[in-house]
Write a structure and sequence with these properties.
The complex is a heterodimer. Chain A is of the alpha+beta class. Helices cover about 30% and strands about 20% of the residues of chain A. Helix content of chain B is about 25%, strand content about 20%. Chain B has eleven helices and 19 strands. In chain B, the strands form five sheets. Chain B has a nine-stranded mixed β-sheet with strand order 11-12-10-9-8-7-13-14-15. Chain B has a three-stranded antiparallel β-sheet with strand order 2-3-4. A two-stranded antiparallel sheet of chain B has the order 1-5. Chain B is globular, with a radius of gyration of 24 Å. The chains are: A alpha+beta, B alpha/beta. The complex binds iron/sulfur cluster.
């Protein structure tokens, strides 16, 4: 955001709560033949209390994407919202020539025992992204990647919800690669010395922080990542990879709309700057928008009658162009007026 | 680990060579360790080599020492040992840039609030504003000022003022105006104390009992002031960390590269900020690799620069007047065996020229 400002670009930021007001301006702009660049960052699909409004707003976004995608540049798009399936991704990755870990879906202990009878080690994780949810008893559920060991087997019921079981890769280090429109920015995460973080480094360990170091992937691996991204139809996101002890690189997952701050800062990749430059170069919109001073929180479609106060928990944005990750925090904690951004 | 494995220095661990010894700066753990210059050379020349090869090169008689070095490197987690080929990226780590021409502004405030200047700084994405209030500060003015800054793009505010009861009583009120207020320094206070305010104790207040203005402090070289983060390391590679993207504006609107510098670059009302920024870029292009004495010092990448209090104000590469370190013999003033730098060579118009023979004599004395 600050970079776009510095580069002299005009930006309109759209959040779920402002889509209603701004969509008209955007459609107007596009219909006049302007070709702004879009950056679809994140979209809370749970902003509105009324569930159908969330769905409606996504439909609206999809429509906007559909009518503009041939003429305007989109960095990430609403279609990225549903490309995050850990079962389908490996299939595409394999097709792209990447190594993947062997995987199974099981729902009974007996099946599981058959698989892990071989000498390989296995882990289990969620099919999708991390799950945050409230359990029945006021506990919070959070999906971690877990090693399947005797302790876990002992606790395990005979049958359970179908779960993903994956061959454990004896890793030398993990790799995060931020993929930006064809370019790869990779960071190796060295956590092995530390048993606590061995399986998934989301179990943050503060005492002995992991080392995060910039690396270059072999050319052919980058080529395969590119192939994968185009197969899944995304031009920006974050790859999770693992290099095993023999030097082989395995595909783990791809998160479109992934974070880039954690890769950019320790490695000095200046991704904020690069993204801003990319958007600037793709922007072909000359009209200055009018500032939209205030939006009406209670806007509802014409066909709807009931009005209710909406909660203020949602975020994030999209559009002609950007948002730099920490800006949301700034907007919030420092009360930077949204108008300054838009 | 076996001797057939390869030794890789982590890109975030940056070795810096000095005259008498070197250091490795760990920019992620924010610390540094001393290493002998030989080890510096090994890391420079043999990064990524098979350990066995390095040992062969240095001969049987040195095997043990090399092994000790490698153990030290592993223990401190400066290196990664692997049998695989890994291409670390040692270049990207040097990148650092902020989306602005001016990142840090010092502003002297008299009896009126310079609204236009704040607007200008905000418009140019300046992130840090240091406010210096002359004489006894008027609380109403300060509250007003903070409220105004709060609405700007400026992200953090440092306030420097003379102590008064009124200010101390109103600290919370000031913070309520803007949580961008991160530090308050009150000089001439009746006592010395450090307070923390705000919900996350994000605002530090220093009460200082004497009238040491920061003029006394500025440019003082001490290991406590060394900065071992990646940004500092990247910045000092190409700029003087003192003047880079910094601007100082006095109560009359005159602009200097630093509030203690004599030279005036222009006036904020008449000269566009971008033009002033250009002058500052030119001024801050002197790195410590060019400054006499510092260029031989292992601390030059983590030691803050000061281009005002130097040995010779006429020369852009003069040594810092307030440095109490002698890099030629690796001794701080006060340590046994310390001698001032001028006894290790000669200050000439072209800079300091070390005298190898004399330095050797001093070094021998320690042994
Ligand atoms: S010589 Fe003194 S001022 Fe120069 S880098 Fe070393 S410690 Fe800092």
């Amino acid at each position: 955001m600050d970079w776009l400002h510095h580069l002299g670009e005009r930006v309109m930021v759209v959040y779920p709560q402002t889509l209603a007001v701004k969509i008209g301006t955007i459609l107007n702009l596009v219909q006049r033949g302007e070709r702004p660049a879009f950056w679809f960052r994140k979209w809370s699909s749970a902003y509105h209390e009324q569930k159908y409004l969330n769905e409606e707003s996504i439909k609206l976004l999809n429509y906007l994407h559909c009518i503009t995608k041939d003429n305007c540049y989109w960095l990430n798009s609403p279609s990225d919202l549903d490309s995050n399936n850990k079962l389908i991704q490996p299939l595409l990755a394999e097709e792209a020539g990447l190594n993947i870990a062997q995987q199974h879906i099981v729902s009974a202990k007996s099946e599981l025992l058959k698989i892990i009878n071989s000498d390989k080690k296995f882990i289990t994780k969620s099919f999708g992204t991390a799950i945050y949810a409230n359990g029945d008893d006021d506990t919070t559920l959070f999906a971690y990647t877990q090693m399947i060991d005797d302790a876990l087997l002992a606790k395990m019921p005979e049958t359970f919800y179908p779960s993903l079981v994956q061959q454990y890769i004896d890793k030398e280090f993990e790799i995060r690669t931020f993929y930006l429109d064809g370019e790869c920015f990779s960071m190796a995460i060295f956590s092995q010395e530390n048993d606590k973080t061995k399986v998934d480094f989301r179990h943050y360990d503060n005492a002995m922080p992991n080392r995060n170091e910039p690396i270059c992937l072999p050319r052919e691996v980058e080529e395969r990542l590119r192939r994968f991204a185009s197969a899944i139809g995304s031009n920006c996101g974050s790859f999770d990879l693992i290099q095993d002890k023999t030097g082989q690189i395995y595909f783990v997952e791809f998160n479109p709309l992934g974070q880039f701050g954690m890769v950019s800062h320790p490695c000095g990749y200046m991704l904020e700057k690069r993204i801003a430059q990319l958007l600037k170069s793709k922007n072909q919109c000359n009209t200055q928008y009018e500032r939209i001073a205030k939006h009406d929180e209670s806007l509802l479609p014409l066909c709807v009658m009931r009005l209710e106060q909406v909660s203020d928990g949602g975020y994030e944005l999209c559009y002609h162009s950007d948002f730099y990750e920490s800006d949301y925090a700034i907007v919030r904690s420092l009360h930077k007026p949204i108008d300054l951004l838009g | 680990m076996t001797h057939k494995d390869k030794l890789y220095l982590f890109p975030s661990c940056i070795p810096v060579k000095g005259y008498a010894r070197s250091i490795i700066v760990d920019t992620q753990r924010r610390c540094y360790k001393f290493i002998p210059n030989v080890l510096y050379r090994i890391l420079q020349e043999h990064n990524g080599d098979i350990i066995e090869h390095i040992m062969q090169l240095y001969g049987k008689e040195n095997c043990e020492i090399i092994e000790e070095y490698i153990e030290f490197l592993i223990e401190n987690n400066f290196v990664f040992i692997s049998k695989n080929d890994i291409t670390f990226n040692y270049n990207s780590i040097k990148n650092f840039d902020t989306p602005n021409h001016i990142n840090n502004a010092q502003l002297d405030v008299g009896s009126i609030i310079p609204f236009n200047t704040i607007d200008l700084l905000s418009e140019h994405n300046c992130t840090v504003l240091q406010i210096f209030v002359k004489e006894t500060a008027d609380i109403a003015l300060l509250l007003n000022l903070l409220g105004y800054v709060h609405k700007s793009r400026i992200a953090s505010v440092y306030l420097n003022a003379k102590y008064s009861c009124e200010i101390e009583q109103n600290l919370q009120a000031l913070l309520d105006q803007s949580n961008k207020l991160q530090q308050v320094l009150l000089t001439d206070a009746p006592r010395t104390e450090t307070l923390r305010l705000g919900p996350c104790e994000s605002c530090i207040v220093y009460l200082i009992n004497s009238d040491i203005s920061s003029k006394m402090q500025c440019g003082t070289v001490h290991p406590n002031n060394f900065a071992t983060n990646r940004q500092m390391m990247a910045e000092t590679l190409c700029h003087s960390s003192c003047w880079h993207k910094k601007i100082s504006i006095d109560a009359n609107g005159f602009v200097r590269p630093c509030r203690f510098a004599e030279q005036v670059l222009g006036s904020i009302g008449d000269t566009p900020l971008t033009a002033l920024a250009e002058q500052i870029v030119a001024l801050s292009s002197t790195t410590k690799d060019q400054v006499e004495v510092c260029r031989h010092c292992e601390f030059r990448r983590i030691c803050p620069d000061c281009r005002v209090f130097t040995r010779n104000p006429q020369s852009p590469t003069a040594h810092l007047a307030r440095c109490a370190y002698n890099p030629y013999i690796a001794r701080w003033q006060g340590q046994s065996g310390y001698v001032p730098v001028d006894q290790c060579g000669m200050f000439t118009p072209k800079g300091f020229v070390p005298d190898a023979e004399r330095i050797e004599q001093y070094a021998l004395k320690f042994c």
